[in-house]
Each structure stands twice: as structure tokens, then as C-alpha cells.
Amino acid sequence: MGVFSANGIKNIAVLTSGGDAPGMNAAIRAVVRTAIYNKLKVTAVIHGYEGLIKAEYVNLELSSVANIIQRGGTIIKTGRCQEFFEPEGREKAAKAFKQASFDGLVAIGGDGTFTGANLLWNEHKIPVVGVPGTIDNDVFGTDYTIGFDTAVNTALEAIDKIRDTAASHDRLFLVEVMGRNSGHIALEVGLAGGAEEVFIPENNVSIEEVCKIIERGIKRGKRSSILICAEGKVAGRSYEIAEQIKKSGGYEAKICILGHVQRGGSPTAKDRNLASRLGSAAVKYLMSGQCDIMAGELNQEVVPIALHDTFSKKKKINDDWIKLEKILSI
Ligand code: F6P
Q1: Catalytic residue at 136?
Q2: Cα dist. 48→78, 93, 211, 240, 271 in Å?
Q3: Ligand 1, residues 178, 189, 238: which to mutate, most atoms within 8 A of Cβ?
Q4: Which of 12, 67, 268, 304 has the fewest Cβ atoms nearer than 10 Å?
Q5: What is the tens place of the pLDDT at every residue in 113-134?
């Protein structure tokens, strides 16, 4: 956590970085409106950290964020910037930041965004506050990230439709959801969608065991099943799992990879309100001279979390959910 003198704070910048997530616009709106309410100037840095390096800015007024609370994506664009992960890239970004006379930065994104933000503070004393925006929900220090709830509901809607086909044709389906290195989306939709098994990076499921579950189901008259798989390190992991199931139990699984549909769409009320609360809190933290933190939500309270913790500590999967999912899919 860092402190800086916020006495003369006048001018703040906001950016979105990493994968887009539904609710990022609601967070931008909250940053802009809270800043202007408190007589601060706000500037958007376009395309995330790349825009910081290239000094790509747009001034934001109250009207710039009108009618965006319900829109998916991010109106100020996003990106994953390799150059920023080199010291030279951050040096350029810090120079441009100082030249633009910004006093603080709100960075909306996930663990990669926060890794960069933490370095920007450590190396160049740029005061940054993070707002967790990623569908993956894999950020330590916040119960939920902005976009997770919408992504889960989008995936669930698709899974419910797939279940119709699975039931009509007596089929086994393997549905792959997003979640790089994390199974939060998979577990959440697995439980909500009544899946027979959930494959997540945090928990090793044996293929033999899955085949036994399928066999047990067939014996008691079950004709269709749905398995959920988190993409893990590489999207398309479900093909490998389907092959293993075929080899081990002889079952043919149809594969459906939901992919980027989970990233788009209008945010749920839960995501909009989380975004509004955390975006507004980020500005208040900067105004009080607190930085190198993320505005997180724990037990419904907005709390500051050290940026370094957000990406260096692993957010745990709830083991009770795994157990419950198994009990309910018997
Ligand atoms: O970080 C969010 C996420 O949607 C991951 O679940 C996924 O692995 C990744 O982004 C895909 O990113 P992109 O296609 O934008 O490179």
C-alpha cells in the first residue's frame, strides 16, 4: 500500500486493461461522475497501458458517460500491452503520465493490469488505484470481480439450451467455459446448471471417476449428462478431455466451447452496482492520498487491498461448492 500527498489533486486518468468485462463501462461512469462531483478533471487513457505509452487521451465530461451503464465492453477500449511489461515501456508511460500532469490513475482490469500498476508505483511513484474488472473472478482480495456475474449468467443460459438438446438426443455434452488458470466460472455454472462433473484447474478430477459417474447415471436410467470444463491454460482443453473419456469409458461427448460470448453483453444489476461502488471508491482513495491498492469488496464492504496481494496471492476455490456439486449430481 502506498501514500502520497493528495493536497493538490486536480487531474486523474482512467484506463481499462486486459480482457473486457461487462460492467467496465459502469465503473468508468462511476469514476468520472465521482471525480467531477468532487471538482476533479478526468481523462480517459485509450487502449489501456498502450495508450499510456502513446499518450492517447480523451477528456471525459459528465455527458461522455451518459447512457453507458447498461453497455457491455469498454468505451475507452482495452488491450494487453507487452511493451508495458518491460521496464523501458513503463518508463515511457511514466514520462507521458507526468507530462500530461495527471495526479493519479484508476486502472480497471485483472491480475495482469494490477501487476503493471504495482510496478508503476514502485518504479515511478505514479499513484494508482485498481478496480477489479475481469470475468474470471480470479483476483485475490475481492469476493467478486466486475463482469463475473454477467459472464456466469451468459454461460448458464447457453448451458440450459444445450441441456435441451442433450436430453432430446440422449447425449453427453462437454461445455467449455472461460477462466484462464481458474475455475470460478466453471464451478459457479456447474452448480447452477446441475452439471454431472466440473473440470477446473484447481482440482484434479480423474477421468476414470467421471466415467464411473456417467455409467452410474446410465444404470439408473439417465440418458444425458453435461460436464463443464474450465479452459485453463489453453482454450480447447475440452477436446483432450473428451478424447480421454472416449478412451477410458467409450463415451462420445459432444463439445461446445462458449468462448468470447461470455465476455460481452449488458451487465447484470449485480455487476453494475459492484462497478459503481468500486469505481467511486477508487477516486475517493486517490483523493485521500491512498494508492498502490485495489478497491475490493469483502463481505459486502468496500475495502482497500494492497495491489501486490491481488496478484501474488491465489484466490481460493470454495471446496464446499465442489463437494455440493458432487452430492447434487448423484
Ligand atoms: O481474462 C479473461 C479471459 O476471458 C480469460 O478467461 C481468457 O482466457 C482470456 O481472457 C482470453 O483473452 P483474449 O482472447 O482476449 O486474449
Answers
A1: yes
A2: 5, 11, 45, 34, 21
A3: 178
A4: 67
A5: 999 999 999 999 999 999 999 9
